[in-house]
Amino acid sequence: LEQQVIVSEKLSAIGKLAAGLAHEIRNPLTTIMGFVQITRSRPLDPVTTRYLGYVHEELERVNNLVSDFVTMSKPSVPIIKPIEINTFLDSVLRFMEGHAALHDIRFARDYYTAHGEILLADAAQIKQVLINILQNAVEASEPKEIVTLKTRKLSNSLVITVSDNGIGISPENLTKIQNPFFTTKDNGTGLGLSVSYRIINNHNGEITIDSRLGVGTDFNIHLPLTCDNIKECSM
Ligand code: ADP
Ligand code: MG
């Protein structure tokens, strides 16, 4: 309990900081990203174009980090709307493709949901979860490996799986990865998964993990497909 109090104090301090700074960070970031995009589209030597691509990816990363801090500081009730599953997942993969390319990783898809099938969820929040889990999968993988995004239906829920053949997670670390600030990376924040768990819990969903050290990891996101068990569902 004492540890919980310390964690929540830590979080509220971080939260205040995030709330105040997020806006101030985002505005110049958006301007910088705009000018990077414009500059990239001009005739330049290929090396400069490539470097500007890296700059853009890293700015995107900072932007996601700010999103995680903001979510951490003020957990928001999901705004539930119908989402066309496969189209939505494709758009998230497109969004993450640059990050994957930077690590020389390719995405594959393996959808068992039909075109046009609908999920009731908060698209922005689920996107944030997928970005975090895909980013982790990419970072855990060796160059040239493939990260697969799968879907299937299990009775009344949708299961979205992010599968990698990366380093895997030890049983000891598996018990810690949901904790805010737990990271094994030199430049990690340890916020991605704790934010993701929170978002999926707020959707009355669940995250399960299958992982083997040196073999790879599956992150399974279970989400209810019906409205009945979603709080404040407007459908
Ligand atoms: P961060 O990425 O900043 O470290 P996260 O909350 O996203 O924070 O992840 C916490 C930790 O969980 C990571 O540092 C890593 O040790 C572990 N982890 C998460 N996803 C994977 C994965 N796909 N393969 C191996 N380890 C992972
Ligand atoms: Mg992460």
From TrEMBL:
Q: Name one GO molecular function term.
A: phosphorelay sensor kinase activity
Naturally occurring in which organism (per UniProt): Paenibacillus lutimineralis
In the complete protein, the residues contained here run: 305 to 539 of 539
Q: Which UniProt keywords apply?
A: ATP-binding, Kinase, Nucleotide-binding, Phosphoprotein, Transferase, Two-component regulatory system
Which intervals hold domain Histidine kinase?
20-227
Question: What is the protein name stated in its UniProt record?
Answer: histidine kinase
